[in-house]
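Form 7-S
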Amino acid sequence: MCSKITITSFCLLLIGFISCKDSLGLSEKEGFLNLSIGVSDKVNVVSRSLSEEEQTILEQDCKVRIYSGETLVQKYQGIDKVPAQIQLVSGDYAVRVTAGDSVAASFEQRFFEGKKDFSIEKGAVSTVEVNCGIANTVVAIVWDESLKEMFQEDYQVTVTSSTGELVYSSANADAKGYFSLPENNRKLTCKFRATTLGGKTYESSSELSDLSPATLYNLTYSYKETEVGPTGGAALNIKVEEVPLGDTYTITLKQRPVIVGKDVDGQSYDLEQPMYLELNTQADYSIQVSTSSALTSLIFRNERFEEWGGSANLLDILTLNEQDMETWKNVGISVSDKKQTSNGDVWTVCFAKDLIAKMTAEEGSVETTIEAVDAEGKSRVTVWNIVASNATVKTSETKPYEVWTSKATLHAEILREMLFTPKFRYRVKGEQEWTTVDADLSANSFSKEITGLAPSTIYEYQAMDGDQASSVTCEFTTEAVAQFPNASFESWSGDSPKYIFGSGEDMFWDSGNEGASTIGGNITLPDGTYKHSGNYSARLKSQVIITQFAAGNMFIGKYLKTEMSGLTGNGVLGFGRPFASRPKALHGYIRYESGVVDKGGDKIKNGSQDKGIIYIALTSGEGESFDDGSTWACIVRTKSQKFFDKNAANVVAYGEQIWEGNTEGDGMVEFTIPLDYRKLDEVPNRIVLVAAASQFGDYFQGSSSSVMWLDDMELIYE
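Output:
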């Protein structure tokens, strides 16, 4: 074992904000976290140092997730998106930070990860630190000088995992390879290949098993004379040096200033949202600015400051002398508190009640722009928008997942005691006439699901107390009635492989033709024998090509590559295309001829009747990345038996139908597959659809005589 080394790390610091419970405004069931992230700029020994551009990209793309059990409760992407203040209900949590690319194998793309469990106690502040380092299994090849005694200097080693491979050569002697190994298959196969001095090809394979993540493996290849038998001999030796990458060096990355509003009770207010106050409100409000280094400038702008007694419509708090400070105090603006901490400054600027009364003297909004700059040159600009109104209700924004193609749920907040029946009115934006509906009342709010809406349409709506409408108008856009391109399968191109799109068109559908064509044929073709409309349907024909069984198939996505295992070709498929609508069912036309299984196994036995399948899914989340940078809902790898999991956490909705025998009649029959929505609080971002003439074709099992015809695929909406 080598001694420990220093590497790049990511550090997530959840630092307790130093304040008492009352000033934070926490309930007895909540705790408070202040979140910051640090990134180091060097990777010693393992690889070259990160460039400034690479570090910036990692900072922007790093993902922070906080879990309660299996439930994701908070997620952020990029350092600038992480709020300075996070409130969590008391309980047990885990935080996970990742950065970089989790590709199967790469010489350039690295993956960083760190995890830590923590707890939040009632009314208390928790401090948590997570150090994140390289999570890959890293492999380097060292070429010993002794190899020159036996081989020409063209040696190479192909290092293969269950999901990817890298080729090392004497030409890239300093290369470091980064592997993301599956937890259930943590081994690598190393195949040495070289040409002897006599011109012959020499090959030797070895296997490394039980490999660890966050570990560097230096493989030294050498040649050594041995005494084998009476004439002697030679051997290729491999020395494996294991270097844990556990030690880390961390530097703190400074965040931009944080600006929040505070009411007289110390309750925080998000200044990204308008602040609704009654007319002639007389109460103190404060602006609190927190920085990661010394505050150097704090500017307030309001076009009415002079009207209210100020010397200008702009003031920089930090440049005021004592006389100026007294002048602005008389206006109603003063520094009520300022603190220096090890992490920076905290300034509190009070807007006195008399000034707030002037700001709320009339119906309408008053905007104050606030700009903070610290010693690191980091800045933040926010607008404090006070809306003065005596309205008893306020229209609230709809939640994205509550807006469908033809329905939406409207929400409103009760500001003070209502006098009449809660209602909503809504209309297509730009039209004159409103539609009014009674709402469903709860403790401090009310809501209503409205139906009969038009898809892909902008609506606006207002909450109402009887006939008195809220001063706030909100909008939403209904989902589109999205459909598949080339859903009648009239457009095709290419010969071998045959593609399910026309020349010059974008690919949406794909099949196993690209893999099958490498061993002699297409399995999915246009066919006019059976069709519902047009000239063609898609014919999916299971067959044996040379010695390998291939199920007739078609899917939304792309055939990415073929991984060979001897004479067996294994497909790598990217499932899913971008999609943001929520249909209720899949409709189409099918003819299925089920053959007798002649390529059976553990999934389906020889002599039984083959089964055809169609399944559809809507997924959410970030998806899986392939080597070329493309992202998919799921990447299928038949070699390692990694398939689509209908019960995966990212599946929003799912539906399937299995045909266990021939369809009826002499032509095509109609089918409808309903979608079961497992998650009603998420909007999907991709759609998956797979059709196969042999259900267990992924396992190379089924009947070589099964055929499926498909035509006129359509999504049905409410």
